[in-house]
Specification:
This protein is of the alpha+beta class. It has 4 domains: 98 residues; 204 residues, no CATH class; 108 residues; 95 residues. The protein contains 15 helices and 27 strands. A hairpin with a 2-residue loop joins strand 19 and strand 20. Helix 4 packs antiparallel against helix 6.
């Protein structure tokens, strides 16, 4: 080997060793930098004319395990998802209490029942009635406040979805920019290690927000895809879009009013394609978990109001009131299908009969006929007021009381006594009417229901049958209803809500209509009058709140006949209070709602079941979060053992490089001396 080649080799060794020492220095300096990976300078023999001519740097390499990186990003998505669920379930627990909490809705229903039980012992005492009304008012307010809290949380989550998408878009743009820089460096044979570290950090941030798929190209670019395979980064970034809702409510759902997540400006809705990350957790909370909780509370409210109002309409205060005013609005030509008899009795202040009439409802064509039947009494008047409310009054100083007797009126899946149908003596008000009907959410809008029968829709001036067959699905039934009732401006629609489908019917003119069913459609889908969101609308009847003495503590006699002078109401009669207490303490049928199956349960027990289900879900999510977080830390530790800088190891490497540098310098010095000797000999 010539002295020139020896000198060149020694100088190359000095240069390479110096570069390696710089890399070690950078490793040590960044030992605590998040996302920094250990670098090494790979070397290779320099060959000239087939002979070794020293050494050179080939490239700066990152020490990483790509498989562990991929697993870590996947785990970030799982943990990000569970972290969101765990956080919001914890807040729900704080808001609604754990099972057994004295402030939960189950205990509030129990306290109302206990106050009614106490009233039965002394129905004549005003204090007992005041306590019942106070407990009923607290319960109604709690139902509404829970709804407000749930909907406020849903709106907060929807805003968080928009914020999360903004950050996702920023990460996508960053990854695309780093791709471009890495591609340029690769083309110029420059190191890309630091740029790849920065891109991995951006990918990790993105993976925590949403689950993604990635693959690498030969030019150094990383292609980023959604779980469904839609490209997010590839020679450009596709940004996502979402407009957060301004006002949230129980009837507002995705994609019904709530905006979806768009793939690019005005692109396809990909809301349902997210499976992991914080974004998927937020979507699940907004569209599933919180709506299920609301659905359970709404179902409890509906059954509570129906059972309590049924008992209260069957009862009477003592002394009775002089006027009964319904809570629902009607037109005189409304023609509900009324059957059975309904008793209207006029009594004096002592509870003795002044006049009584059992009205045969089957002979009445419409509400006007009912008004006329009451007006046919000598001591009573009836009318529809300016708001369409049915009003009955006793004349003079007399009082009026009613008994449901065998009366029945059907509207969809609801069959009640006439008094409850009119809302004559309600305890709670839902502000529901008969211009809208709503069914429960179904799993499919296009699967045959396997039901056959005829819906008969009665409206002012007539009725129309709508036949449904076993092969019909919700969409077909809705179309048939709309076609058959177009002339009456009654339309049916299937609303898509959070992956399920709800049949609704509406009179666009605001007229009442009444549905009866020869088959099982209305009961199967629980098609009933009113809108969803009962808990958001429930209130205690204002005049009862103002005067608890008009609470129905007794009941008008249901004897076959009543004679003038018969005492049919008394101060000590507790049958009305007992009926109310029984309504709260007897089994009620609940259709499936809020993650709870069809069941027969006490109202208080159903309230406890809602809280218990939420508590169980919260515990399961918390357990899964802790498990997955532990697994994430394990993967991170395994990756760190490979990629992170070990100071001791770097110091050892530095000592080796120091010795190599000194040796190369010694070689350089020796060769220089030999060349001086050679020059002197020649001279």
């Amino acid at each position: 080997m010539s002295l020139t080649i020896s000198l060149h080799s020694a100088l190359a060794s000095l240069s390479v060793t110096q570069s390696q020492m710089q890399i070690v220095s950078s490793n040590v300096a960044n030992a605590s930098t998040e996302g920094y990976t250990r670098k090494i300078a790979a070397t290779q023999t320099l060959v000239v004319d087939g002979k070794g001519s020293g050494v050179r740097l080939s490239e700066i390499e990152r020490i990483v395990d790509q498989n562990l990186l991929r697993q870590f990003r996947e785990q970030l998505a799982r943990v990000g998802n569970l972290e969101i669920l765990n956080t919001y379930f914890g807040r729900i627990q704080d808001l609604f209490g754990a099972p057994g909490n004295n402030a939960d809705i189950s205990h509030m229903i129990g306290r109302l029942g206990a106050s009614l039980e106490s009233l039965t012992a002394s129905p004549e005492l005003a204090a007992g009635k005041f306590d019942v009304i106070a407990q009923a008012q607290l319960l109604a307010e709690r139902m509404k406040s829970m709804t407000d809290e749930i909907q406020s949380m849903r709106q907060e989550v929807d805003a968080a979805i928009s914020d999360t998408i903004t950050v996702i878009n920023q990460r996508l743009v960053t990854i695309n920019q780093l791709n471009d820089q890495i591609g340029d460096a690769v083309a110029l044979s420059q190191t890309t290690a630091e740029l790849e570290d920065a891109r991995d950090r951006a990918l990790a941030d993105l993976s925590e927000l949403m689950d993604v798929q990635t693959y690498a190209r030969a030019n150094g670019h990383i292609i980023v895809l959604t779980p469904a395979g839609r490209t997010l980064v590839d020679n450009g970034a596709v940004t996502l879009g979402h407009n957060s809702i301004a006002t949230m409510g129980t009837g507002i759902n995705y994609p019904n009013i709530i905006d979806g997540i768009s793939y690019g400006p005005g692109g396809a809705d990909i809301t349902t394609e997210f499976q992991g990350g914080r974004l998927a957790g937020l979507i699940e909370m907004r569209d599933q978990r919180l709506t299920e909780l609301q659905s359970g509370i709404d179902r409890l409210t509906e059954v509570l109001v129906s059972s309590a109002n049924g008992a209260h309409n069957a009862g009477s205060a003592f002394p009775p009131v002089q006027t009964l005013t319904g809570t629902l609005s009607f037109a005189g030509t409304d023609a509900p299908g009324m059957t059975g008899t309904f008793r209207v009795t006029i009594v004096d202040s002592a509870g003795a009969v002044v006049e009584s009439q059992d009205i045969a409802l089957g002979a009445l064509a419409d509400i006007n006929a009912l008004v006329a039947a009451v007006n046919g009494m000598a001591n009573a008047t009836a009318s529809l007021d300016a708001n369409g409310k049915f009003v009955m009054s006793a004349t003079g100083t007399s009082r009026i009381a009613v008994n449901e007797m065998t009366s029945q009126v059907t509207a969809g899946n609801q069959t009640t006594g006439l008094g409850q149908f009119l809302g004559l003596n309600d305890l709670f008000i839902l502000n529901a009417d008969y211009t809208n009907y709503t069914g429960d959410p179904q799993n499919s809008a296009t699967t045959a229901l396997g039901l056959a029968g005829t819906l008969t829709v009665a409206y002012p001036g007539g009725s129309t049958p709508v036949v449904y067959a076993a092969g019909d699905d919700l969409t077909t039934i809705a179309a048939n209803i709309t076609a058959a009732l177009a002339a009456e401006n009654i339309t049916a629609a299937v609303l898509s809500e959070n992956g399920k489908f709800r049949l609704t019917m509406t009179d666009t003119n605001g007229d009442n209509f009444f549905i009866t069913d020869s088959g099982l459609l209305t009961s199967t889908i629980n098609l009933r009058s009113g809108l969803i969101g009962a808990a958001s609308r429930v209130t205690l009847r204002p005049d009862i709140f103002a005067d608890p003495n008009i609470l129905s503590s007794g009941q008008l006699s249901n004897a076959a006949t009543l004679a003038v002078g018969d005492f049919v109401l008394a101060a000590g009669d507790s049958s009305g209070a007992s009926a109310l207490a029984a309504a709260l303490s007897s089994g009620q049928t609940f259709s499936a709602a809020g993650g709870l199956p069809v069941m027969t349960s006490l109202l208080a027990d159903y309230g406890a079941a809602i809280v218990s289900l939420n508590s169980t879900q919260a515990a399961n999510v918390e357990a899964q979060f802790e498990i997955q977080l532990g697994y994430q830390e394990a993967i991170k530790s395994r990756s760190a053992a490979i990629s992170e800088v070990n100071i001791d190891e770097e110091m050892s490497t530095l000592l080796v490089l120091q010795n190599a540098y000194q040796a190369a310098a010694r070689v350089t010095q020796t060769v220089a001396q030999m060349m001086d000797v050679l020059v002197n000999i020649i001279n």
